């Protein structure tokens, strides 16, 4: 092989060689890639003479992982990147386009993020039941703020204030339409609606907006070119969301009624995707993520506060059965529904929101999908190419010429043994190798 191809660019050129490559869809024959600047410029072929060589013998190269359901913070984005999660998709929070400009202008070594802004919910509706009473900033948030530099703290509070200063209360069709416009003006990348009456969350009787109001919000979002994701946790609310015309379900229904086959077919026929967040369902049922927490590949990268969270659980619906969630997700998968990896992790360590942590829980979700019946390759597709495609992130989620060089190199072969995703050797974000 001729290894003397010159590189004319002044940008740094890196070649990762001798790797097994999962390109986002499948394992490919090529064993090397070349990165120039932020971009993959070659998959296979000869290596430029001036390239810095990284010999990846015995390792597997993956696209950067994508968490399709989070609530995040600068610290959360940093933890995510440590675990090879190069993109987080926020489903209720302050990282809209304007929020990113305020909070991330001086942040480096963090994952990329997209956001729905503030979700559409009824006054007093979900997620109010998870938060302390009153308008004060909760103590657990104040603790996290205290750890930040003055500049980062001011940026976080400024982003929160900006994204929330004009958020209308939603009680009518007109207010729902105004809310959508506010989120779009703030730079929301998509829109989120809440359909949660509270039983699964241990708070039955939560207020939920009428179908008429929610449908108006969905239609207005679509007029603005935004997809809509619905928070749902039951079969009934999932059916409602599909009837409203949403593009994705942000959770997997935790029950399994007799009409589940009809519901699965309805979801498949609609073309909607599902982000099951099996890690959340497991936590809601009372299962802590202690096995994950005890893995040295995990606890070496997380703070004691996040370790405590992993070793606890929501435990709001202990009467449920995780096997139902496994059957539901497999039924959807077999019906051709796009299944995306997501976690629903909180922005900071919150005592009552246990079992989840940024980055680490993506690997747990992959393991649970395989336990449910996915092949390892199918699970990896759900954390790479599928979320990239469904959220219009055309520059990532795959290893291909011209794609952004968001990459994870792991020891072993996660296309056979999914747990090997945690054996991280190196992470590249926009072509730059992250320093441990």
How would you describe the overall organization of this protein?
Helix 13 (322-334) crosses helix 14 (360-372). The protein is of the alpha/beta class. Helix 6 (211-223) links the parallel strand 11 and strand 12. The radius of gyration is 21 Å and the shape is globular. The protein has 16 helices and 17 strands. The chain has two domains: 1-63 and 398-436, Urease, subunit C, domain 1 (Roll); 65-395, Metal-dependent hydrolases (TIM Barrel, Alpha-Beta Barrel), CATH 3.20.20.140. A six-stranded mixed beta sheet has the order 3-2-7-15-16-17, with no helix packed on it. A four-stranded mixed beta sheet has the order 5-4-1-6, with no helix packed on it. It has a four-stranded parallel beta sheet with strand order 11-12-13-14.
Fourth-level CATH superfamily of the largest domain: Metal-dependent hydrolases
For the record, the count of structural domains works out to: 2
- What is the spatial order of strands in the main beta sheet? 3-2-7-15-16-17
The main sheet comes to: 6 strands, mixed
CATH class of the largest domain: Alpha Beta
Morphology? globular
How far do the termini sit from each other?
34 Å
Which structural class best describes the helix and strand composition? alpha/beta
Cα gyration radius (Å)? 21 Å
């Amino acid at each position: 092989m001729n290894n003397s191809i010159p590189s004319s660019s002044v940008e740094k050129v890196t070649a990762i060689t001798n790797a097994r490559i999962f390109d986002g869809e499948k394992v490919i024959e090529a064993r090397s890639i070349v990165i120039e600047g932020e971009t993959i410029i070659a998959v296979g072929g000869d290596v430029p003479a001036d390239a810095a060589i990284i010999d990846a013998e015995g390792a597997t190269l993956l696209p950067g992982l994508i968490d399709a359901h989070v609530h995040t913070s600068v610290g959360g984005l940093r933890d995510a990147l440590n675990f090879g999660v190069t993109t987080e998709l926020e489903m209720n929070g302050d990282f809209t386009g304007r929020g990113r400009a305020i909070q991330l202008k001086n942040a480096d070594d963090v994952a990329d993020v997209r956001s729905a802004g503030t979700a559409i919910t009824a006054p007093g509706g979900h997620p109010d039941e998870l938060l302390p009473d009153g308008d004060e900033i909760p103590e657990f948030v104040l603790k996290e703020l205290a750890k930040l530099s003055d500049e980062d703290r001011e940026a976080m509070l400024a982003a929160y204030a900006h994204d929330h200063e004009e958020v209308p209360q939603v009680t009518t069709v007109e207010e729902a339409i105004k809310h959508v416009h506010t989120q779009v003006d703030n730079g929301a990348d998509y829109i989120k609606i809440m359909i949660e009456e509270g039983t699964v969350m241990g708070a039955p009787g939560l207020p939920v907006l009428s179908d008429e109001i929610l449908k108006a919000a969905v239609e207005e979002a679509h007029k603005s070119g935004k997809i809509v994701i619905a928070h749902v946790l039951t079969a009934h609310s999932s059916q409602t969301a599909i009837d409203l015309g949403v593009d994705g379900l942000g959770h997997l229904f935790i029950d399994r009624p007799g009409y589940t086959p009809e519901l699965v077919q309805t979801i498949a026929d609609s073309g909607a995707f599902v982000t099951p967040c099996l890690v959340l369902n497991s936590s809601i049922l009372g299962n802590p993520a202690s096995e994950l927490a005890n893995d040295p590949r995990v606890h070496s990268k997380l703070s004691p506060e996040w370790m405590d969270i992993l070793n606890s659980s929501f435990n709001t619906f202990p009467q449920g059965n995780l096997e139902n969630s496994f059957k539901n997700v497999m039924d959807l998968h077999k019906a051709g529904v796009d299944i995306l990896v997501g976690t629903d992790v909180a922005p900071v360590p919150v005592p009552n929101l246990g079992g989840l942590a940024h980055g680490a829980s993506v690997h747990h979700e992959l393991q649970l999908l395989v336990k449910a019946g996915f092949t390892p390759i199918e699970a990896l597709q759900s954390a790479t190419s599928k979320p990239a495609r469904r959220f219009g992130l055309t520059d990532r989620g795959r290893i291909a010429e011209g794609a952004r060089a968001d990459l994870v190199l792991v020891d072993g072969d996660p296309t056979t043994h999914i747990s090997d995703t945690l054996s991280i050797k190196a992470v590249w974000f926009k072509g730059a190798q992250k320093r441990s």
